[in-house]
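Duplicate of #3305? Posting structure anyway:
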């Protein structure tokens, strides 16, 4: 996929600056103007080997040496067409031949022209052995004429930029294009105010461009790149700052009533809130009690008790005369949330019923597959305001659903929703007001990563987990080692015999259908892992196979996947919750939130197909109650392969933050919270949210100050332009709203 680069407004078009070969090469990367080209950084640098003396080198070594030309000879080859050019060079102590095999006379002339006797050159190459003459030589070295001064030698030793290449484009073309651009570096647009750059001790942009594209030292490349990274972070933070400033000018329902429902719920809770739940509750109350829309990212590991925190906030909304919506990524989850809320609320959810509490409200479920009649009734409750709380899926985002007065939206599992769905929800508020938004995620994002990517959200973290969760231990099982696999099913059978239940998760429903590609896994160097393993197993076929397995003889099997009807799914989940199913074979519909405290085994087939957070979520389904959980990551990969190393790493830690980092490193910086995530965070160019943590924090401080002083950026046209370009580049459809 072609990586897109914004065309900075008003910047010099490359077609005017470069010869056509160069501008075409740049255009093939989407780089069409000077500003973008100067920010199109080398992928890496090659640093010449340290200078050596010829008399110290050995066969097979990569060397760089400063030498002078002693003699140049060429002759026609005997056995085939072409010429041998032999250049003898000396470092003053030792001589060594440089040998070139050339096909055309003009090539010979070209080298001869650059290598007059007496010239000082720097040679880079690998030392080989010439059997014929029984001496060391360097074949086809790179070389460059240098001046015999300290500067000349330093120049010869400079790191060489290596740009990304496409077919028929050479490094030389990319280098000559950028070098021409550097002539105009003083006219580049500077989105970051000069005084900010100076205060942070960064090189000015023109200098930074030279350091990036023609560095003299490795340190230069760092200083130059530091500017580009900072600039990128600064523009992002300016966007977040503007969004926040805009929120502060936007009216929102004031959700500050202190009862009656919320305290009534607190009395009814079957447990006491943890200190963390209380503290975060207070922080959320402060924020939603103000007349401007707040956006909170509530993160906490699986089972940390986010739901009740959200429910308390939702009751505030109801108590304040507004409604709250809870959005889940799947229907199964929406249904479960609905059940959970109704259970927690008890008589507080039964408005209009005989056994309802006098202050009660209604909690309605709204999903896409609902029958028309039930749906109409629900919609009526939503529109009239009878339903204080509405639980649903994306269907809630559909235009047709009109709330009487939506005050708060809670989104569960943010990685399934584009963060920018929030913006669409804004339109659903009452009377020109924007609802408050709480996004809940069980995949914690390291702090600076959050700042860099969802920096317009307030991040609140639930760090302690309530209750006595027995916890879960994870193992990787290699299918290629049948003993392990048998042991896995035996283990499952033992748990069933002890009265526990088992989840088996498959990557797809049916093996007769086309297989989805496994996700890309990157190694530490950002390289792609080996491609595909065996085709993924399906729910249907797995259930059939398990029915045949001797270990599981007599076990009651059930299946669950997204193609079952709502009624069927509810029925199966009900059976599982009631303990009428021993082994539930399913897709990831059970990934998040599904609560079966009696389940103790989670078997994930073709585990390499799942993302880090998915695996973590899935294993979080077991060990929720008093029984210790076991998770098996079953893979068809060979032990030691990249996929399985990856699985082992996940199996070895349960720390959410550590996993988040692992995930980041594996998928490459930039792709933060998942595929569906649109927008800004998908297009980080230079920033690495972990490595550049400090730059991100500094840029945030600076950008927020600049925007606070000038929210419309009228005195910072270059920054305003960069912000607009960035938003357009990030997501042409969503971000414009
Ligand atoms: P998650 O953060 O994964 O959404 P839940 O909100 O589903 O976690 O909570 C997990 C379980 O812990 C639920 O059964 C919930 O009722 C229970 N729970 C929540 N808060 C507490 C608490 N303070 N003490 C004991 N159990 C709690
Ligand atoms: Mg949950």
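Output from current build:
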């Amino acid at each position: 996929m072609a990586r897109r680069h914004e065309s900075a407004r008003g910047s010099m078009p490359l077609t005017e600056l470069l010869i056509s070969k160069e501008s075409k090469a740049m255009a093939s990367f989407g780089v069409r103007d000077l500003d973008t080209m100067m920010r199109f950084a080398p992928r890496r640098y090659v640093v010449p080997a340290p200078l050596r003396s010829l008399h110290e080198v050995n066969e097979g070594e990569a060397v760089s040496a400063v030498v002078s030309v002693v003699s140049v000879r060429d002759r026609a080859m005997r056995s085939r067409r072409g010429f041998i050019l032999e250049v003898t060079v000396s470092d003053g102590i030792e001589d060594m031949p440089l040998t070139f095999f050339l096909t055309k006379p003009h090539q010979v002339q070209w080298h001869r022209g650059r290598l007059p006797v007496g010239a000082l050159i720097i040679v880079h190459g690998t030392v080989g052995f010439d059997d014929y003459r029984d001496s060391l030589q360097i074949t086809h070295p790179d070389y460059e004429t240098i001046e015999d001064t300290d500067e000349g030698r330093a120049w010869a030793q400079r790191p060489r930029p290596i740009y990304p290449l496409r077919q028929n484009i050479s490094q030389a073309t990319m280098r000559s294009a950028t070098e021409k651009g550097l002539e105009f570096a003083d006219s580049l647009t500077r989105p970051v105010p000069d005084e900010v750059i100076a205060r942070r001790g960064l090189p000015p942009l023109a200098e930074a461009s030279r350091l990036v594209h023609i560095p003299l030292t490795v340190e230069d490349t760092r200083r130059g790149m530091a500017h580009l990274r900072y600039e990128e972070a600064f523009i992002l933070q300016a966007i977040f700052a503007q969004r926040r400033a805009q929120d502060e000018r936007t009216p929102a329902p004031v959700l500050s009533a202190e009862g009656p429902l919320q305290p009534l719920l607190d009395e009814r809770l079957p447990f006491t809130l943890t200190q963390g739940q209380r503290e975060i509750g207070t922080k959320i109350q402060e924020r939603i009690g103000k007349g401007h829309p707040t956006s909170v990212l509530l993160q906490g590991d699986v089972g940390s008790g986010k739901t009740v925190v959200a429910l308390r906030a939702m009751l505030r909304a109801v108590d304040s005369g507004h409604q709250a919506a809870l959005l889940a990524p799947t229907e199964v989850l929406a249904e479960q949330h609905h059940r959970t809320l109704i259970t927690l609320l008890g008589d507080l959810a039964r408005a209009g019923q005989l056994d309802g509490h006098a202050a009660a409200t209604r909690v309605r479920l709204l999903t896409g597959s609902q029958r028309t009649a039930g749906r109409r009734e629900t919609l009526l409750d939503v529109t009239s305001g009878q339903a204080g709380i509405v639980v649903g899926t994306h269907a809630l985002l559909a235009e047709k659903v009109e709330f009487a007065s939506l005050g708060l939206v809670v989104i569960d599992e943010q990685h399934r929703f584009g963060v920018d769905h929030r913006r669409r929800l804004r339109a659903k508020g009452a009377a020109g007001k924007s609802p408050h938004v709480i996004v809940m995620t069980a995949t914690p994002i390291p702090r600076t990563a959050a700042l860099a990517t969802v920096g317009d959200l307030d991040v609140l973290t639930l760090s302690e987990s309530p209750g006595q969760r027995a916890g879960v231990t994870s193992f990787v099982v290699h299918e290629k080692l049948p003993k392990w696999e048998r042991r896995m099913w035996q283990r499952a059978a033992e748990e069933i015999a002890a009265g526990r239940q088992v989840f088996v998760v498959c990557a797809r429903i049916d093996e007769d259908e086309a297989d989805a590609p496994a996700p890309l896994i990157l190694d530490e160097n950002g390289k792609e892992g080996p491609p595909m393993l065996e085709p993924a197993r399906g729910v249907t076929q797995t259930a059939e196979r398990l029915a045949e397995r001797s270990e599981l003889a007599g076990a009651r099997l059930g299946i669950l996947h997204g193609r079952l009807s709502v009624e069927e799914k509810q029925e199966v989940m009900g059976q599982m919750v009631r303990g009428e199913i021993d082994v539930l074979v399913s897709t990831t519909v059970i990934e998040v939130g599904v609560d079966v405290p009696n389940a103790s085994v989670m078997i994930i087939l073709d585990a390499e197909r799942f993302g880090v957070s998915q695996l973590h979520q899935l294993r979080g389904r077991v060990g929720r109650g008093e029984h210790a959980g076991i998770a098996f990551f079953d893979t068809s990969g060979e032990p030691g392969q990249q996929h399985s190393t990856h699985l082992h790493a996940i199996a070895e830690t349960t720390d959410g933050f550590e996993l988040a980092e692992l995930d980041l490193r594996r998928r490459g910086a930039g792709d933060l919270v998942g595929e569906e995530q649109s927008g800004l965070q998908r297009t980080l160019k230079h920033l690495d949210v972990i490595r550049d943590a400090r730059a991100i924090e500094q840029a945030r401080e600076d950008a927020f100050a600049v925007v606070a002083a000038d929210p419309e950026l009228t005195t910072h046209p270059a920054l305003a332009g960069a912000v607009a370009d960035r938003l357009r580049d990030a997501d042409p459809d969503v971000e414009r709203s």
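Confirmed duplicate; merging threads. The CA atoms of residues 505 and 588 lie 7 Å apart. The longest strand covers residues 62-76.
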